[in-house]
Design a protein that fits this description.
Structural class: mainly alpha
Order of helices and strands: HHEEH
CATH topology: Helix Hairpins
Number of strands: 2
Oligomer: single chain
Distance between the termini: 38 Å
Length: 199
């Protein structure tokens, strides 16, 4: 009975091992896909930041800091960020959406007759904010995938190098003991038959 139980556990552990290996491979593929886009997005983010920073420096040369602050405070509607979730190979990762990040000139809330430098700076920072939202989603996804890959790798290794070999060792010991008992019984039966034959 114990041998049958151990053999059932071995079958279960092996099927779990195969499933976890497939999951790990799927997670690694998803990770590398996300990593490719993360590299490009990171570069785009740096470019957008440099552009926005340059625009701000130019605007500060043309306009006073007081005017820039008053324009910034005049913005009526701030961007909204919505967080949703999606499932990637059993891992819950965020889906981040930004609403009303890039605005038209009249939607910004400050005077239409503000300088072109202020408008260009506002547009550059809106594009930068959009880029940050996209990068945040991808990088959070990467972190979660790495965490899940590590967990899955530990489970796969535990099954491959500890659980399955231990179960197989126990199964071997039980099989060996059963064979010994069978040989003992066979020898005992032979001796009984021999005694009965003599009498």
């Amino acid at each position: 009975m114990e041998l049958l139980k151990i053999k059932a556990k071995i079958r279960l552990a092996k099927s779990g091992y195969n499933l976890l290996k497939k999951k790990r491979d799927g997670l690694i593929l998803e990770f590398f896909d996300a990593l490719k886009s993360a590299k490009t997005l990171r570069q785009d983010l740096v470019k957008a930041f440099i552009l926005a920073n340059d625009k701000m420096n130019l605007t500060r040369m043309l306009e006073s800091d007081l005017k820039i602050r008053s324009v910034a405070k005049a913005i009526k509607e701030h961007p909204k960020v919505e967080l949703e979730q999606k499932n990637v190979v059993g891992v819950i990762v965020p889906r981040i959406k930004g609403e009303k990040v890039q605005k038209k000139l009249l939607e910004r809330g400050y005077e239409v007759y503000s300088s072109a430098a202020i408008n260009e700076t506002a547009e550059a920072y809106e594009k930068l904010t959009e880029q940050i939202i996209v990068v945040a989603e991808v990088e959070t996804t990467l972190r979660r995938l790495i965490g899940e890959i590590e967990k899955t790798k530990r489970r796969v290794n535990a099954l491959e190098f500890s659980v399955i070999p231990n179960l197989q060792r126990v199964s071997g010991i039980i099989s060996f003991r059963l064979q010994e008992m069978e040989r003992d019984n066979f020898t005992r039966l032979k001796l009984i038959k021999a005694r009965l034959a003599r009498t």
